[in-house]
Amino acid sequence: MTVGISECRCILVIGATAGIGRALALAIHDLPSKPDVIVGGRRKERLDELTKTSDRIKGVQVDVSANRAALQAFVKDTISAYPDLDAVIFSSGIQHMFDFKSPEKVDLDLLDSEIVTNYTSIVTLCTLFLPHFLKLSESDRPSFLIPVSSGLAFVPAPWVPNYAATKAAIHSFSISLGVQLSSTKVRVLELAPPLVESELHDHQGTTPALSKFWMPLSEFTEKAMAGLINGDTQIAIGQAAVGWEAHEKGKEEKASQSYAQLGKLFGQS
Length: 269
Fold this sequence. Notes:
- By secondary structure, the chain is an alpha/beta fold.
- The chain has one domain: NAD(P)-binding Rossmann-like Domain (Rossmann fold, 3-Layer(aba) Sandwich).
- The protein contains 9 helices and 8 strands.
- The strands form 2 sheets. A 6-stranded parallel β-sheet has the order 3-2-1-4-5-6, with helices on both faces.
- Belongs to the short-chain dehydrogenases/reductases (SDR) family.
- InterPro entries: NAD(P)-bd_dom_sf, Sc_DH/Rdtase_CS, SDR_fam.
- GO terms for molecular function: oxidoreductase activity.
- Keywords: NADP, Oxidoreductase.
């Protein structure tokens, strides 16, 4: 029997000040189970705006691109303040266009920051939250790590090559993490959006063009919540589902089989 987030008592949404993260935080708040919702992000004024809407919405400032010590302090403080925390959604993300035909114009600092924000910070935070979630597992309580990848993890967009690569990395990591944790009560639910209405593209100047094609945020949120409530481990939506069906279907099962075979080979469970 699969278990979804409607079982959760307290859910942290990192990257909740805009777009997908904000919409998911508000939708989770409205679940009949009435979980507490912690909204995390860099912009305090937007966090304050959200916390004013309900006593069950709490705000925490966090910059996922901070150093490891700062992230460790953030996780420690969050767990201390909210010991019932049993789910984290990783929705922070940045996107930049790079043209490698003009390598002298490729900003390697921007490239590095995109990798940190979209990939390594999520791996770091998953690692730091896991001891708490594994303790919940020992007491038979389910918990959830929910990375947000993208349909570009399955079919890359060459104009945002590094962004697509970071999302492919998160997709691969999510499958591996879920397989490794399959004997515990910690579940990994990967959410893969298509092109969705958001502020992500504003700094690129591409919003007017993309807005003609993107999925409305309200439609995406409804479909994403259905998958999260159902406890689906791979939640690919809209055009992302087309890419997943064509290129990724069955990989999770194959990874699980390979892990089990290697476990037998090395005498591990």
